[in-house]
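ugh ok fine here u go
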Amino acid sequence: MNDDMTPDTAPPAEPTPPTEPTPPAPKGGARRVVLAVLPAVLVLGALGGAAAYTKATVNSADRTVTTKVWGGGAHKPAKDPAGDVGRGRADTELSKLLLPVPENYRLGPDMGEYGNDDEISGKKATAQMKESGRGIAGKQRRERDQRIDRLHVQGIAQRSYTSDDNDLTVEIQIVKMKDKRAVHDMFGFQTELMGTYGGSRKGPTIEGHKKAKCFREPQTKSKLDALFCFAYDGELSLTVNAYGTKPFSASHVADLVKDQLDHIESPGEYV
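structure:
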């Protein structure tokens, strides 16, 4: 080191960078909104995954196989055809409420980790809903779990359907809750969320069923389209998700939703 160096010749110290302001913590109202929306965001994410799966299914489908329509020609269906395995299980009170597989359809792809025609007990369904909240902060997760417990879910029955033309997949889920008020609140929350979900379009009305609302996927350049319908009846909450290639017949899906709701009212009749 040069002994003649003085403090005046020393290199200047680098300036301290300004401290970024800490964003204010969300207030109580905003926090409650976040807690309410999180479960639905997870649901919407699952719907997107289902749409991607449907696209893969449609693209890889073997279109050379001859389609056999159930019953064939002018058939005379039994009074309660739900016993036909090809039309879906009907061995429990809840599974009987699912729409039997209609003509020109077959059982579709698995719904997540479950099959294409399955029922989940209330305890298991509640645990599954709570498990979807992994990653949420401890206190927020506990509050979310308490909200789920208050739903008193008694069971979930679900079934998927794919058209024989491989251009449409429909998923139907019926959730039974102990509290009718919870069912009503769930319907209000789902429809309010979809009504504000970026670009969602109004879907078709369901003839004869005022407690049902449908929403179409936002308009995009994708070759796929989607329709989401929600309804409720007493202790039952109904969700119908449909994915298909464009052009998409929303009215056709609306007819299936109507058939499903009519079937809930009269599960022993042929639809």
